[in-house]
Design goal:
mainly alpha, single chain, 110 residues, 7 helices
Length: 110
């Protein structure tokens, strides 16, 4: 883990915190939640009309599928593992992931 604490270059750790811990209890409760509430507390990233839902989901998935796979795995790991760490440690985790991918084939894909 990095020893210093600097501002994050990308928003992954800090934005991952918006839907962490208590807010994600909705994810585990199997209770319905209104779309506006989910958006307001950071569980949903966007709102759309019901007739656009499938189209937007496919569009999002297609965009994500084009991204470098090692980078996506790294982002998922950093957001998941860093969500409950102190911010400085989460940023260190993010920096470590960035450095691990810096000379990878994924960098050339981006």
């Amino acid at each position: 883990m990095s020893a210093s604490c600097r501002a994050p270059a990308a928003p992954s750790v800090s934005s991952g915190r918006s839907a962490s811990s208590g807010r994600c209890i909705f994810c585990y409760s199997a209770r319905p939640i209104e779309a506006e509430r989910a958006y307001a507390i950071g569980i949903a990233s966007e709102l759309c009309d019901i007739d656009e839902t499938i189209h937007r989901a496919i569009e999002f998935a297609a965009g994500a599928a084009k991204l470098p796979p090692l980078a996506i795995r790294g982002i998922k790991r950093v957001v998941t593992d860093g969500a409950d760490l102190p911010l400085c440690e989460g940023i260190g985790l993010e920096q470590d992931a960035f450095l691990a991918l810096f000379d990878s084939a994924d960098k050339a894909e981006a």
